[in-house]
């Protein structure tokens, strides 16, 4: 199973872009990269996912390197409500609904 | 469209008791997965149900079981509760279980405290 590596914590100033990195050097060609976040004591919230092209939605942008060994989640204008633990997950192809969560990155957005 | 709902939201039990948690998926979703979250172990996969059949199972003892009904609602049961079962139990639903592309949406969780 492809594993992910994320920094344990990051700080970001309110209104600035938050760039959260993720390494997944053993990713297979048919595995997607998913991002979720979890605000304290709530259920994880889906943010975005991608295979090899950059993706953007109303919440964030996902930049995947050409070799797919790493990716960056970008929150363009972070707010205090974006303070949460962010999980980068490589989706295992034949594991159906099984998501393997790592420790994630605790993002603190400060005023 | 309503999100994933879980009941109850909070529960206190004593060691040796059993507990049943309920999850109602997003309308139209047929796959339900359960996860346990503890401070020490993080988020861990328990099992997944699709069309009333268990499709995947995590590495948990047999005291943890589940089922899914024909309307896709799911329940999980923990028998002979131990102190270490205190956790946030999360349910996630997805449209169908066809591999790696479907997105899972999580409910708010049930916080279980075992005394």
Write the layout of secondary structure elements.
The complex is a heterodimer of chains A (111) and B (115).
Chain A: E1 9-13, E2 18-23, E3 33-38, E4 45-50, E5 55-56, E6 61-64, E7 70-75, E8 84-90, E9 105-110
Parallel strand pairs in A: 1-9
Antiparallel strand pairs in A: 2-7, 3-4, 3-8, 5-6, 6-7, 8-9
Chain B: E1 5-7, E2 10-13, E3 19-24, E4 31-38, E5 42-50, E6 53-57, E7 64-68, E8 74-78, E9 87-94, E10 105-106, E11 110-114
Parallel strand pairs in B: 2-11
Antiparallel strand pairs in B: 1-3, 3-8, 4-5, 4-9, 5-6, 7-8, 9-10, 9-11
What does this structure look like?
The complex is a heterodimer of chains A (111) and B (115). In chain A, 0% of the residues lie in helices and 43% in strands. The radius of gyration of chain A is 13 Å and the shape is globular. Chain A is mainly β. The termini of chain A are far apart. In chain A, the strands form two sheets. A five-stranded mixed β-sheet of chain A has the order 1-9-8-3-4, with no helix packed on it. Chain A has a four-stranded antiparallel β-sheet with strand order 2-7-6-5, with no helix packed on it. In chain A, a hairpin with a 5-residue loop joins strand 6 (61-64) and strand 7 (70-75). With 115 residues, chain B is mainly β. The relative contact order of chain B is 0.33. The chains are: A mainly beta (111), B mainly beta (115). The A-B interface holds A 30-32, 34, 36, 41-46, 49, 87, 91-103 and B 4, 31-33, 35, 42-45, 48, 50, 55-56, 58, 88, 90, 92, 94, 97, 99-109, 111.
């Amino acid at each position: 199973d492809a594993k992910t590596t994320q920094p344990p914590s990051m700080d970001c100033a309110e209104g600035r872009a938050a760039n959260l990195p993720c390494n997944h050097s053993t990713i297979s060609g048919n595995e997607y990269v998913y991002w979720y976040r979890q605000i304290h004591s709530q259920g994880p919230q889906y943010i975005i996912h991608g295979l090899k092209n950059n993706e953007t939605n109303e919440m964030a942008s996902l930049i995947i390197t050409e070799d797919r060994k790493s990716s960056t989640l970008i929150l363009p204008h972070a707010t205090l409500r974006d303070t949460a633990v962010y999980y980068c997950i490589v989706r295992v192809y034949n594991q159906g609904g099984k998501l393997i969560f790592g420790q994630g990155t605790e993002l603190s957005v400060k005023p | 469209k309503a999100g994933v709902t879980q009941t109850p939201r909070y529960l206190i039990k004593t060691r040796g008791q059993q507990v049943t948690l309920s999850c109602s998926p997003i309308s139209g979703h047929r796959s339900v997965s359960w996860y346990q979250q503890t401070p020490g172990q993080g988020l861990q996969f328990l099992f997944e149900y699709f069309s009333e059949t268990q499709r995947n199972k995590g590495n948990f003892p047999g005291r943890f079981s589940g089922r899914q009904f024909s309307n896709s609602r799911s329940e999980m049961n923990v028998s002979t509760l131990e102190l270490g079962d205190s956790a946030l139990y999360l349910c996630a639903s997805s449209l169908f279980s066809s591999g790696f592309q479907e997105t899972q949406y999580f409910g708010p969780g049930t916080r279980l405290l075992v005394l």
